Amino acid sequence: MFGFGQDIGIDLGTATVIAYVKGKGIVLREPSVVAVDNNTGEVLAIGQEARRMLGRTPGNIVATRPLKDGVISDYTVTEKMLKHFISKVCGRFVLSPRIMICIPSQVTEVEKKAVIDAASQAGARKVYLIEEPIAAAIGAGIDIAKPCGNMIVDIGGGTTDIAVISLGGSVVSTSLKVAGDKLDEYIVKYIKRKHNVMIGERTAEELKVNIGCVYPKIQDTEMSIRGRDLITGLPKTINIHSSEMMEALEEPAMMIVEAVHSVLERTPPELAADISNKGIYMTGGGCLVDGLDKLLKEQTGINVMIAEDAISCVAIGTGKALDNLDVLDGKIKK
């Protein structure tokens, strides 16, 4: 029987939930979106199905993201979502699993407790928490137990976590609420301001993924999108160039660069020397925006590497940390 002692690592992201099962690898990757019927409070759809409803629902149905900026903003919905994903991963016959969930590095005790309670209510036998940059470093294949400095910049959907890690713990870290979602917001604002056209979050995300960039491209690419003309109120199709995307994303990209700067300024000199030798590792879906690595390298003068499977790094690291629960027990609060 599939069951007792099953360990699951969950990257509870603002945009995506990724689950890793010991011995099986990544078994689930779903958008963290839940559609709820407001009249009855009933959950209608979770994950991929609910994401299709974003911005397209009638008044009584609301498709929401229960996590905002990396922390739980709607406790009841998060619990239902977790329950759904856990049962999907474990199958029907399950004796409650041990679950390790990663959280942004600068969350409060109250926010930590909310995550632990939600996972316990959703059926976990024991819940462990791990900081996102540490999980990302493990997932990127860095040996974090050694006494040398590694710098991780993990750009997710809701938060960017930056940490200098040595001897299995973070020495200096910061977490800022500028990440994938914020980039989408800036794109929406920019297109509204420049073209007088209103677009939705999903269209903004498609622009970011397809032609978004923060560093000059050799060839200017373009993409046509549809939105609502704010003057006539009618649908309108416009062409957007990657050079415009660069203009739209310049401000949030620089916020991330400045945060990296401030962490480097607070890093002990020995560890700073290690980082300048080894470079900075970038993980998370947000780091895939074209040119972010080049911009960071130009501004810091340090080599920047994007981890191999950047999007899944945190989940893989969380899963690998499960193998060493006993070793990490000292480091990770239950």
Describe this protein's structure.
It is a single chain. With 334 residues, this protein is α+β, with helices and mostly antiparallel strands. It has helices at 48-51, 75-90, 109-121, 132-139, 180-195, 201-211, 242-265, 269-278, 292-300, 313-323, 325-328, and strands at residues 7-12, 16-21, 25-31, 34-37, 43-46, 61-64, 67-68, 71-72, 98-103, 126-131, 150-155, 160-166, 169-176, 197-198, 222-229, 235-241, 280-283, 304-306. The protein folds into 3 domains: 7-134 and 314-328, ATPase, nucleotide binding domain (Nucleotidyltransferase, domain 5, 2-Layer Sandwich); 141-178 and 250-310, ATPase, nucleotide binding domain (Nucleotidyltransferase, domain 5); 180-248, Actin, Chain A, domain 4 (Alpha-Beta Complex), CATH 3.90.640.10. Helix content is 38%, strand content 28%. The chain has a 5-stranded mixed sheet with strand order 3-2-1-9-10, sandwiched between helices. Strands 13-12-11-17-18 form a 5-stranded mixed sheet, sandwiched between helices. Strand 11 and strand 12 (160-166) form a beta hairpin.
Corresponding CATH superfamily of the largest domain: ATPase, nucleotide binding domain
| Poorly predicted segments | none
**Amount of helix:** 25-40%
- The CATH architecture term of the largest domain is 2-Layer Sandwich
Number of domains: 3
Secondary structure tally, helices: 11
- Mean pLDDT over the residues: 88
Q: Work out the strand percent.
A: 25-35%
The CATH topology label of the largest domain is Nucleotidyltransferase, domain 5
